[in-house]
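Final report, results section. Input specification for complex C-07:
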Amino acid sequence: MDKKTRICIIGGGPAGLSAGMYLEQKGYENYTILERSDRVGGKCWSPHYNGRRYEMGAIMGVPSYYAVKDVEDFCGITHDGPKLNRNYKNRDGKVIEPFEPKKNILKIPRLLKMKKQIKQLGEILETKYKGYDVNGHRGVSEGRYDGYAVTPGREKVEGVNENLKDLAMPFKDFCAKNGVELTQDVWIGPYTSFGYGYFDEIPAAYVLKYLDFQTCMNFVKVNLWTWKDGTQYIWEQLDAHLKNPARLNSEISHIERVNGKVYVTVNGNTEEYDKLIVTAPLYCADGNNGATNGFVDYADARDDEKEYFSKIDYERYTVQAVLTKPEDHPEISYYVFDNMVKERLGHLMVYYRRWKDQIDQVITTYALRTHKDMKEVPYEECNKMVLEDLKTMKNPASEVINKWSVYYFPHIYSEDYRNGWYEKVEAMQGKYDTYYAGEIMSFGDMDETAEYSRELVDRFF
Ligand SMILES: Cc1cc2nc3c(=O)[nH]c(=O)nc-3n(C[C@H](O)[C@H](O)[C@H](O)COP(=O)(O)OP(=O)(O)OC[C@H]3O[C@@H](n4cnc5c(N)ncnc54)[C@H](O)[C@@H]3O)c2cc1C
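Structure output:
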């Protein structure tokens, strides 16, 4: 492609900004990033409180966040945040240590079995499911893998492996098929409580591409990265280092793609581009937080775009930032496994104490309001339930200082996955001078989205 190609990138979150970085590194400088809000970072949102930053969105990374590391190197920054530490409570607020045999004498046989199954899962992922963890979903439903390996060298790998078709099934069924049901006890912590849905509804592909074996073990060992000034800082820094920083407050009202050109009407003016990269939501069935619409709503979406994108669902992940009285401040972050089941939809699943050395800092709470087979828990109701749960946990909130329910983890379900949704959408890349990136194309975390942008630039530009 001509290096002078005019490229419009929609969205100034991790996917859009890193697309800018990788394009620039490849010699494309004629790119424009349009960001609708008044800040960059998207779901990496780190507001200030009392001289420090807390996290309303993304919190952490793992040592295999290679694309995030690319960004850090590009900007000369590093992961310099507070160490994460956590413990567990049951739904009645009692501290438990579910993985400690001495504290669970009666559960020892189950814990031993679980340990064995974890080892077993690690082995089959390397052998039977070779290629499961490459970034993106291209080819999986056809029993192929094609992408970058999650290794320091991030080698391009491709191959045929019929077993990969199993990744379309819900993770719960995938575990049952392979006789490793108890591994869910470990995978659920960094999965469901982090807002990515329930194992009986979400295809194993999403679970295992995000929580590949090594990443899950890093969560178990709390071998995690955080950033002192929040994850938003990573993307603010990237924005500041790009030749073309994102244009904030860009309201796109229309996009027309004709005769090999892309016309974007932004804040009332129509601009001409050659190519479009969409990292913002493609489809939003009910923008119930009022802030989200989909690409199909403002672009001249074609029939195939409408057809496929209308299959996308997303999670309603709900975060509240609260203050507590000093005597009620939690001494550590807590996971509440009892609340990570769909029967407890809308309840507090995890709460995060970020700054260990100060008790006047914000605590953030996390709950899910949707399951594909259940009625959505209304936003305000969920917020009330979480505040009640905090009381039960004996860490009552004295004040709520921030909250949001965000368009989170767009995904498709097993049937569409099995029927080749990703193959069809990947085949549409570039068809209307348009490329699709961001969470739906890989997974809803900072690194998978940035890595996908890297691959997209590599493949098509
Ligand atoms: C509570 C929470 C906790 C999380 N925890 C973690 C974590 O610990 N680790 C991790 O790696 N990830 C975590 N994530 C996920 C991570 O933040 C996202 O996966 C990542 O930000 C996705 O990047 P993105 O660029 O694809 O999308 P987004 O971050 O959503 O960015 C999209 C951008 O597009 C903009 N936009 C939308 N529509 C338009 C439009 N029409 N025109 C122009 N711009 C538009 C938005 O304003 C936004 O800035 C968390 C997210 C949340 C909400």
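The domain at 98-220 is CATH 1.10.405.20 (Guanine Nucleotide Dissociation Inhibitor; domain 1). Residues 295 and 444 are 18 Å apart (CA to CA). This concludes the modelling results for the funded period.
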